[in-house]
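Q: What structure does this chain adopt?
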Amino acid sequence: MKSAVRYSEAFKLQVVREIEQGRFESPGAAKRAYGVRGQGTVERWIRKFGKDHLLGKVVRIMKADEQTELQVLRKQVRELKNALADAHLDVKLEQAYVKLACEAAGIRDVEEFKKNTLGCGECTRRQGGPSRRSQCVVCTGGYESAELLCGATFASTSACG
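A:
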């Protein structure tokens, strides 16, 4: 049977004061430093003699490799956010380029142009139109907007390379 340990009020106040002054990061650290036994003993002292706000303090203990992994993951998140921003910018530039190219080619309805030019032959056949499978982005693996525009506008003259 374990013997009960009784701590003096002066000792309890000293431990609580040192925690409040920041000497210890947590009640658990003070408990280990002074060899206090018992689950929640120091926390009870803080509730009784100190400031309650210290009880909610979160202490994160990590191994060095966990900290390194966390840093690597945070760096990857930053890089992915930057890549996503770049991709959004590329899409906006591409949309602006298609609009300007359509205006220069005399195409008034950009959305209709995209539907007709970027659509799959299967979609066009279902709509009753001629097959454009050779110009379908999905079937061909992708075209640049300029190539599609040149192909649609200057197909008969072969002006575009």
